[in-house]
Design goal:
The protein is of the alpha/beta class and 394 residues long. It has ten helices and 14 strands. Bound molecules: zinc ion (ZN) (2 copies).
Length: 394
């Protein structure tokens, strides 16, 4: 058996894969509500003869299916997320969303249809596999806390040796594969600081605790965490995105103040340092002025960190498959991705398949009402997954 045979089977099924993707696109469901989508996936897996399927894995409709090879060997997991977004679609495609207000505006419909096409081919040739394949059909990537973490906790990666995930990309030209050699995305945490002072007349500051003074001190002091505490070779961003205090009057000292913002890091130790330092410093800064403050801190997804050996194999495999000119090294994307949780457990890589095409206006960013992809990325994602699996199991 050869990769060429797998790829020719994949190509033979291409129209059905396109139809599947268009069906999913027309019937999007929000995160944690993907009941019909999960049922569609299950129906397809059964149709292909894949019966080792566990449904409702984790905190929602996540699904884990296993294809057991004819001979022993490593187990490779492939992930596709399947949730959509609360966006009203504004594209001109004839498979436009029928679920008004909900749209597959991130390409998860493509991920799902392409993984199904890969599953079909691998199931057909399972006897010749030297090892196994685990299909991770993941719920709720777009909304915290996401589905990945809970799927891992429910045992989705038991017996898995390697894990790979694809994200299609509307900002990468069609035909191209993008990868990051280590960190692919940043951890994106958010916080709100609530400051309690003591209001009063602007003419009598000595009788008040000015929450605006406390807020401004916090803004400057906390910024020094980045400039003075964090190793300068490890990126950290602290952004205060909003400050609210006082009203429109000229003569009132503000009673309370609120600061909101985000902390973005790559390294997990830097991330912990930033969080701990903020939680420790904020009450003290307020106390010095006689006020009080507390932080509500929300942990976002951790950063996606690819492992070196698997990135190496990925680059070699993709270069052979698609040509050196189509393999692009990408900078870190600052958006979050809960694929991070899979890579915290197992070696592997998360990479991009391009779907940008100016001729069909597939140029809008992800999460935009006019988001569109060149469907070439659907087939190419399948080819990429099969080529990778072949490296481990043929
Ligand atoms: Zn998204
Ligand atoms: Zn996405």
């Amino acid at each position: 058996m050869s990769l060429a045979q797998w790829l020719s089977d994949l190509a033979a099924n291409e129209q059905e894969t396109i139809d599947d993707r268009r069906y999913l696109h027309a019937h999007p469901e929000l995160s944690f509500q993907e009941k019909e989508t999960a049922a569609f996936i299950l129906k397809k897996l059964h149709q292909y003869g894949i019966t080792d399927v566990t449904t409702n894995v984790g905190n929602g409709y996540g699904m884990v299916a296993k294809i057991t090879g004819g001979e022993p060997g490593p187990t490779v997991a492939l992930r596709a997320d399947f949730d959509a977004l609360a966006i009203t679609e504004e594209t001109d495609v004839d498979f436009v969303s029928k679920n008004i207000g909900v749209m597959h505006a991130c390409g998860h419909d493509v991920h799902t249809a392409s993984l199904l096409s890969v599953a079909r081919v691998l199931q057909k040739h399972r006897q010749s596999l030297k090892g196994n394949v685990v299909l991770l059909h993941q719920n709720a990537e777009e909304v915290m806390p996401g589905g990945a973490k809970s799927m891992v906790e429910a045992g989705a990666l038991e017996g898995v040796d390697y894990v790979f995930g694809i994200h299609v990309a509307a900002n990468l030209p069609k035909g191209q594969i993008g990868y990051a050699s280590s960190y692919a995305t940043a951890a994106a945490d958010s916080f709100q600081i609530d400051i309690q002072g003591k209001g009063g007349h602007a003419a009598n500051p000595h009788q008040t605790v000015d929450s605006i003074i406390i807020a401004s001190q916090m803004i400057t002091d906390l910024q020094t965490l980045v400039s003075r505490k964090v190793d300068p070779t490890a990126p950290a961003v602290l952004t205060f995105a909003g400050v609210e205090a006082g009203g429109t009057a000229y003569n009132i000292i503000a009673d309370t103040a609120t600061i909101r913002g985000t902390i973005r890091t790559l390294d997990s130790q830097v991330r912990a340092l930033m969080k701990e330092s903020m939680l420790r410093l904020v009450p003290h800064i307020a106390e010095i002025q006689g006020g009080q403050a507390e932080v509500s801190y929300t942990d976002g997804y951790p950063s996606v960190k690819n492992t070196a050996a698997e990135v190496d194999l990925l680059v070699k495999t993709m270069t052979r498959q698609f040509g050196e000119e189509n393999i692009i090294k990408l900078p870190v994307m600052m958006g979050g991705e809960d694929f991070a949780y899979f890579l915290e457990e197992k070696p592997g890589a998360f990479f991009c398949v391009g779907g940008e095409n100016k001729e069909i206006e597939a140029t809008y960013p992800h999460h935009h009402p006019k988001f569109k992809l060149d469907e070439q990325c659907l087939h190419q994602s399948g080819q990429a997954f099969l080529a990778l699996v072949a490296q481990y199991l043929l």
